[in-house]
């Protein structure tokens, strides 16, 4: 036995029409009232009053991207640990064992990164690691 429900849609339709009308009015007014000047520096990017020099597309070393990935990984891990800390009483022993395994995996990952030299960004970072391994 199906019960028919009366769905009232007119508030959503009125809201959608008013949003489209307000956006259209804002775009139209900015077009009509906006300034129109074409100076020499109109199309150039504004750099806090400093004239732009060079191209904005610079090449960075892959080390910067590696550090960014490590930051995201360890930042998410910190968020997971914080969530565990909030509910550690409800999780009990199983939750404690789970977080110990999780932190152990993080520690192994961190030791691996240090041993491979992934965190050495100095001019002689990789050479120092090779020297220490040869001793």
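^ Assign residues to that structure.
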């Amino acid at each position: 036995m199906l019960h028919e429900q009366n769905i009232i849609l007119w508030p959503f339709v009125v809201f959608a029409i008013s949003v489209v009308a307000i956006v259209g009015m804002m775009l139209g007014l900015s077009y009509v009232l906006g300034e129109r000047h074409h100076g020499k520096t109109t199309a150039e990017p504004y750099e806090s009053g400093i004239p732009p020099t060079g191209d904005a597309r610079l090449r960075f070393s892959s080390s910067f991207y590696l550090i960014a990935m490590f930051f995201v990984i360890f930042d998410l891990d910190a968020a997971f640990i914080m969530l565990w800390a909030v509910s550690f009483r409800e999780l009990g022993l199983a939750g404690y064992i789970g977080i110990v395994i999780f932190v152990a995996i993080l520690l192994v990952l961190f030791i691996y990164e240090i041993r491979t030299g992934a965190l050495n960004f100095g001019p002689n970072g990789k050479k120092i690691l090779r020297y220490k391994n040869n001793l």
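The first helix runs from residue 10 to 33.
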